[in-house]
């Protein structure tokens, strides 16, 4: 059983049989890959859901770069970001000409420490990026009042969580909301991203950025559409390494594209923005229409993990509550790395790129990211102790029970 169904974070977590068949169908409709009605339907859905104007790009990082350009970020101007973030965030700031200023996290939320944010604001600060890490809500009310007091922009990064009718109440106080429809985010269009803007003067500039965006090359769309097919076929064979070999071969043959290129890990980002392909909009829209089901499953596993770790006295970010649809459930253990290695032998793959790094993944060049080692000790400490447990639709309740049993038995 465990041999055929790995427990994992990154083997195409959204790709169940429905997603697989949907993408197979879309593979045959090449004339609708770039343009079609689904793009506008997605935009309308997001406008209504987030009460703003949405602008769609081929990834979250591009949507963010479009936002910084629309703000006319000048050299030396600063954007506050948290330690424990993704390399693409500083890349977008640098690409627009700005400087990321890292602020340490609050260990209980894995989000910005608001007291430290206040201390780091200068006359050069243009924006604060608030990341609801793994779906744990940041202190958005406090950040809103800080931004109001200093007349700076609040960007809410909802890449890891899209709230539904049951909450949480986030995504409503930012001047702008960033969404990612990347392959392992809250919902997936395989790739894609959006900025929802609530400030009129920036809306016009963002519209111009979107209109000038280039189309995604067809070869790239082919690679994206190969991704669900490849992982769906490889996944049952991950336990005996055959799956890894198959995927590696596809990568060597350029039939798959990486989430982060080597250049991006080195700190560069192409200045060319791309329009979101219609096929990605269609896939994201299909998932958005099932958001309640997706989030309810995440809630169920959040609750299950929560009760088990409380009973076992395992340390965790204490802001987590049982009603959250977490993208993943982080816990703190002393030897996270060796526990992950141990679990791998049992076909449990918990490497998600968010371990042992303040600017993730750990293969990123932190110097290029502008992070000074030692400056965010809480983020550094948390990132070495974090072990995240999956909550996506492919993790069944019995998988989650098996996983937590293994973690409790072997936690060091
Ligand atoms: C918190 C967060 N925000 C934004 C992004 C950017 O998303 P994308 O991969 O669509 O560029 C990422 C990406 O990996 C992320 O982790």
Strand-helix topology:
Layout: E1 7-8, H1 17-27, H2 37-50, E2 53-57, H3 60-70, E3 78-82, E4 85-86, H4 88-95, E5 99-103, E6 105-106, E7 111-112, H5 114-120, E8 125-131, H6 140-150, E9 153-157, E10 176-180, E11 193-197, H7 200-211, H8 218-234, H9 242-252, H10 262-265, H11 278-288, H12 291-311, E12 328-332, H13 336-344, E13 348-349, E14 359-360, H14 366-369, H15 377-385, E15 386-390, H16 397-410
Parallel strand pairs: 1-13, 3-5, 3-8, 4-14, 8-9, 9-10
Antiparallel strand pairs: 2-11, 6-7, 10-11, 12-15
Helix pairs in contact: 1-8, 2-11, 3-4, 3-7, 8-9, 12-16
The structure holds pyridoxal-5'-phosphate.
Short characterization:
This protein is α/β, with parallel strands linked by helices. The chain is built from 16 helices and 15 strands.
Structural features, described:
The chain is of the alpha/beta class and 412 residues long. The protein folds into two domains: 29-211, Aspartate Aminotransferase, domain 2; 291-410, Aspartate Aminotransferase, domain 1. 42% of the residues lie in helices and 14% in strands. The protein is built from 16 helices and 15 strands. The chain has helices at 17-27, 37-50, 60-70, 88-95, 114-120, 140-150, 200-211, 218-234, 242-252, 262-265, 278-288, 291-311, 336-344, 366-369, 377-385, 397-410, and strands spanning 7-8, 53-57, 78-82, 85-86, 99-103, 105-106, 111-112, 125-131, 153-157, 176-180, 193-197, 328-332, 348-349, 359-360, 386-390. Strands 2-11-10-9-8-3-5 form a seven-stranded mixed β-sheet, with helices on both faces. β6 and β7 (111-112) form a beta hairpin. α8 (218-234) runs antiparallel to α9 and α12 runs parallel beside α16 (397-410). The radius of gyration is 20 Å and the shape is globular. It starts with 6 loop residues before the first strand and ends with a helix. 49% of the residues are buried. The model has no long low-confidence stretch (mean pLDDT 97). Pyridoxal-5'-phosphate binds next to α3.
């Amino acid at each position: 059983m465990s041999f055929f169904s790995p427990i994992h974070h990154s083997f195409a977590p959204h790709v169940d049989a429905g997603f697989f068949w949907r993408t197979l169908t879309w593979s045959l409709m090449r004339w609708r890959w770039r343009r079609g009605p689904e793009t506008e339907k997605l935009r309308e859905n997001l406008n209504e859901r987030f009460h703003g104007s949405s602008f769609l790009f081929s990834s979250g990082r591009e949507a963010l770069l479009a936002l910084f350009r629309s703000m006319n970020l000048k050299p030396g101007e600063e954007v506050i970001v948290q330690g424990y973030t993704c390399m693409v965030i500083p890349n977008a700031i640098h690409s627009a000409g700005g400087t990321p200023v890292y602020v340490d996290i609050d260990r209980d939320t894995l989000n910005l420490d608001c007291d430290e944010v206040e201390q780091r604001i200068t006359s050069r600060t243009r924006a604060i990026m608030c990341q609801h890490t793994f779906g744990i809500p940041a202190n958005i009310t406090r950040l809103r009042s800080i931004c109001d007091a200093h007349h700076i922009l609040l960007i809410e990064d909802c890449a890891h969580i899209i709230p539904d009718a049951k909450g949480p109440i986030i995504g409503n106080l930012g001047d702008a909301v960033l969404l990612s429809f990347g392959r392992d985010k809250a919902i997936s269009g395989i790739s894609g991203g959006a900025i929802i803007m609530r400030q009129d003067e920036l809306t016009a500039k963002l519209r111009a950025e979107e209109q000038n965006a280039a189309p995604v090359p067809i070869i790239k769309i082919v690679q994206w559409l190969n991704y669900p097919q490849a992982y769906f076929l490889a996944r049952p064979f991950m336990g005996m390494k055959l799956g890894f070999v198959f995927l590696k071969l596809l990568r060597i043959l350029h039939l798959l594209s990486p989430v982060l290129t080597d250049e991006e890990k080195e700190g560069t980002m192409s200045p060319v923005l791309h329009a979101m392909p219609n096929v990605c909009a269609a896939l994201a829209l299909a998932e958005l229409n099932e958001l309640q089901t997706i989030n309810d499953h995440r809630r169920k596993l959040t609750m299950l993990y929560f009760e088990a770790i409380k009973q076992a006295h395992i340390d965790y970010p204490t802001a987590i509550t049982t009603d959250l649809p977490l993208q993943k459930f982080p816990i703190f253990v002393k030897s996270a790395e060796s526990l992950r290695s141990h679990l791998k032998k049992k076909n449990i793959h918990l490497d998600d790129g968010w371990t042992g790094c303040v600017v993730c993944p750990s293969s990123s060049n932190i110097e290029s990211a502008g992070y000074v080692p030692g400056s965010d000790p809480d983020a550094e400490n948390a990132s070495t102790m974090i072990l995240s447990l999956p909550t996506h639709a492919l993790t069944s309740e019995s998988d989650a029970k098996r996983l937590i049993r293994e973690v409790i038995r072997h936690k060091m």
